[in-house]
Amino acid sequence: MKSSEQVRKAETLRTLHGGGDILLLPNVWDVAGARIIEEAGFPAIATSSGGVAFSAGYPDGQKVSREKMLAVVACIASAVGVPVTADAESGYGSSPEDAGRTARAVIEAGAVGMNLEDSPGDAGHPLADLWAQLEKIRAVRQAAAGLGVPLVLNARTDVYLLQVGEPATRYDQTLRRLSAYREAGADCVFVPGLGDRATIGRLVADLHCPVNILAGPGSPPIAELKRLGVARVSLGSGPMRAGLGLLRRVADELKACGTYRGLEDAPSYAEVNRLLEKPVKS
């Protein structure tokens, strides 16, 4: 991809966070899924680190290497015409240099956005030290500036997702972290695990910046999230796990009944072939 095209896509992705509509991201984990989402009319594609890891035979949480993760991102970015934002977990390392290296690799893969979470995957220390996380965010910004691509950084805190601390302390801890991430250079902030309508609205009002919510069963509908001021809604590994759930139902039906009703909603062989006629750039 030419640098000018990548810059244009990055600017487009940033603009999508500030318009009148919520940016909806049903996350993908392979090229076929990315092309389905693009054809459905979504203006951007987001990858799911969990989805990519699961499909490669790994659990989530930086168990799959940066190289394997971003090889999938590169295939997706080369296969679609819309901007791609990559889930880069916690940056594949604990240092600012690791985060900067990951940001450069994300851009070199053709993506123009990046998720960076503050959970290092250590059960004893569920959240990274705040100062260390700010240094990682600054390193991502510096790396992107060095390549001349205005990478859209979505900085995530897992306070609610991992239920860190006493419930009464979680809101203030989340607000403090996300405010600091924004000041350090994040374009959007992400708070998975938060589903309470009143708390979402309060957080959006207090942050004064684009907020990403992870949606799933039980989450407020999109119309309500829009009313609350949410800028971005993603589905994480949900679509990939839903596909596994369908596969399980197909297998159970085949074994128990010898029938095939679970396949009725599948795209046709010809349709999938058509979606993939354009080869992926190597």
Describe the structure.
The structure is a single chain. The protein has an eight-stranded parallel beta sheet. The protein is globular and about 55 Å long. The longest helix has 20 residues, at 238-257. The protein contains eleven helices and eight strands. Helix 6 (130-147) runs parallel beside helix 7 (167-184). Helix 6 (130-147) links the parallel strand 4 and strand 5 (152-156). The chain has 282 residues and is an alpha/beta fold. It has one domain: Phosphoenolpyruvate-binding domains (TIM Barrel, Alpha-Beta Barrel). The mean pLDDT is 95. The chain is 49% helix and 10% strand.
Features:
282 residues, TIM Barrel, single chain, alpha/beta, 49% helix, 8 strands, globular
Tell me the layout of helices and strands:
Layout: H1 3-16, E1 23-25, H2 31-39, E2 45-46, H3 49-55, H4 66-79, E3 84-87, H5 96-108, E4 113-117, H6 130-147, E5 152-156, H7 167-184, E6 188-190, H8 197-207, E7 211-214, H9 222-227, E8 232-234, H10 238-257, H11 269-275
Parallel strand pairs: 1-8, 2-3, 3-4, 4-5, 5-6, 6-7, 7-8
Helix pairs in contact: 4-5, 5-6, 6-7, 7-8
